[in-house]
Amino acid sequence: MPAGRDVVILGGGITGCAVARVLSRRGLSVTIIEQEAVASKASGVAAGLLPPFYEFEKPGPLTDLALKSLSTHRGLGRQLREETGIDARYTQLPFLYLAFTKAEEEALRSRLAWQRATGLRIEVVDNATAREVEPRLTREAPWASLSLDEAQVEAYSLTLAYAADAERHGAQFVYAEVTGLRPEGHRVAAVRTARGEIPCGQVVVAMGPWSCVAGEWLGVPIPVSPLKGQIVILRPPGGPLKAVVMHHLGYLATKPIAGTLAGTTEEEVGYDAVPTSAARKQIMSAVLRLMPSVEAAEVVRMVAGLRPITPDRLPIFGRAPGWDNAIIAAGAGRNGVLLSPVTAEIVAALATGENPGVDLTPFRPERFV
Predict the structure, then answer these.
(1) What is the Cα–Cα distance from 363 to 318, expressed in whole angstroms?
(2) How far is CA 4 from the centre of its chain?
(3) Were both Cys, which of 6, 21, 82, 191 would link to 201 (CB 3.0–4.6 Å)?
(4) DSSP H/E element including 20
(5) Is the pTM of this model over 0.90?
(6) Are 40 and 34 in contact, with CB atoms under 8 Å apart?
(7) pLDDT at residue 59 tops 90
(8) Cβ(192)–Cβ(178) below 8 Å
C-alpha cells in the first residue's frame, strides 16, 4: 500500500480522475482508490454529450458551471491528446432540440433570449431548415432549436485520459474495496481498505451513487442515489448522423467509436445496472418519433449506468460538515462528464485553500444537514 498521501480520492470515475489530474499537476501526492477499474461504472458507458442547456428551463447556478465547463472542454481534449496520447474525441457539432407541439415551440422560444445571452450561437428554425442539417429528421416536428456551439466527447476515453495524465504527474491508483475511514478528532487520518490503511492529509469523496456510504462513515448526510440510464447502440441506415437530435423523449447521437447512441431512461431501481428489453422498447419508440428511419437500424448492443443524483438535482461540492479535511464531490447526475473540468478545479481549490472562483452556496453539503 502507498505511504501517507496529501490527498486520497475515493472513486475512479470521471470525477475522481479529473480531480486527481488537477491535484497531481499542482504538485500534491495523490492516491485514487477504485474497487474495480477506472471508468468501470457510469463513466464508462455515459453518452458524453456536453449540452449546457438541455436540462435547464432557465439560467441558474448550474448553467453557469455548465457553460464554464463547456468552454474548458474545447482546449482540454487537445491538451490531453498531446500529453497522454489518448483522444477523448471532443467534437463540436450541431444540436437540434425538436418541438412537436405549440407548447414545446413556445418553450424553445422562451429560452432563446437567455441562451443567446450566454454568447453561444442558437436559433429557432423551421423543419425544412432543420432537415438541411440532418435530412433524416422527422417531418412531424415543425420547429427546432439549432445550437452550433455544443459538443460531445467519448466519456470513457476522457476518463482514461484524466487518469493517465494524473499518473504522469505522480498519482497512484489502488484497486481495493474501501471499508471505512479512521478519524482523529475532526480529521480523517486514514482510509481503510480491504488491503490495509492509507494515511491521508485530505480525503475526497467521489464515489458516484455510492457516496452515501461515505456519508455513513463521516456521520454526515450525503443523499446521493442511483438513477439508472440505459442506452441502445445502433447502426442507422445512411451512416453517422450529422447532428445530435434531442427531445425530452430521448436523443440520438453518433459517436466516432461506439456507433449511434439512442437514449435514455431515468429509472429509480436501486443499484441494478442490467440492461432490459423493456427499456429497449421504450427508447426505440421514442427515437423513432425523432427519426423514423432508425426503424431499419441494426441494434448493436445495450448498456446501462447509474447516474448519481441528489434530491434537488444539484451536485454536492464542499467540505463535509464537521470535518477539517474531507471534501465531497458527488451528485452531478446526467452532467458528470460535462462538469468534470470545473468540478476538478473546485475541489483542487478547496484542497489547497484557494478561492474556487464560483459561488458554492447552492452546492454545499450543509444544505442537507
Answers:
(1) 7
(2) 30
(3) 6
(4) helix 14-25
(5) yes
(6) yes
(7) no
(8) yes
CA distance 197 to 5: 11
What is the Cβ-side half-sphere exposure of residue 128, based on CA atoms within 13 angstroms? 0
pLDDT of residue 4 exceeding 80: no
Tens digit of pLDDT for each residue in 39-56? 999 999 999 999 988 777
pLDDT score, position 181: 98
Alpha-carbon gap, residue 142 to 99, rounded angstroms? 7
Which residue type, as a one-letter code, is found at position 12? G
Q: Which helix (H) or strand (E) holds 338?
A: helix 336-352
The residues, ordered by sequence, that sit 6+ positions from 87 with a Cβ below 8 Å of its Cβ are 77, 81, 154, 157, 161
What angle (nearest 5°) sits at the alpha carbon of residue 341, between those of residues 121 and 231? 75
Whole-angstrom Cα distance, residue 338 to residue 54?
Answer: 12
User: Taking Cα atoms as reference points, which of 179, 166, 151, 175 lies closest to residue 77?
Assistant: 151
Each residue of 241-263: pLDDT tens digit?
A: 999 999 999 999 999 887 999 99
CA distance 138 to 149: 23
Confidence of residue 5 (pLDDT cuts 50, 70, 90): confident
Q: What is the DSSP string of 99-142?
A: E-SHHHHHHHHHHHHHHHHTT--EEEEEHHHHHHH-TTS-SS--
299: helix, coil or strand? Answer: strand
- For the stretch 134-189, pLDDT in tens is 999 999 999 999 999 999 999 999 999 999 999 999 999 999 999 999 999 999 99
